[in-house]
Known about the structure:
Keywords: RNA-binding. By secondary structure, the protein is of the alpha+beta class. It has helices spanning 7-25, 65-70, 75-84, 99-105, 128-147, and strands at 46-54, 87-91, 119-127.
Amino acid sequence: MPIGLFSHALRLLDQEIVRVRTSLIHIDGSADERQPLELPEPDGAIIQRKTRVSIPVEQYPEHNFVGRIIGPRGLTIQELEVDCGCKLYVRGKGSLRNKEKEEKLRGQPNWEHLNDDLHVMIVVEDSINRAEIKLNYARDQIQKLIDSPNWPF
């Protein structure tokens, strides 16, 4: 079947994905007003910092926090990583899509995080003065996604 038959459907699907993605990432509708993160000049040695943002699954069991953070096709988490200059990892119980696979992996080497509560791990490598700014900015952005009152699902 030639792809030309579905070109209009693909275009409409792509437009809808962009619309939903924009509403997920730009919570307050201020996509044009977003400013890039302003960082000072690097000062000092390169360090690695990590922090966790807990996800309140117990309080809101009906919400799909993992889907909200990762976004359609993983675009939300990718854009946050670029904006924040950090690596973001969804970890903990419920972070894997396949529950059976999660149960098999629990307790095995490199999968110890499955014993923890659901959280987002933020990892940044930069100079001391810039790392804290990036870490705080990423934490705030993740918290906005979690606390957003406009859950589309």
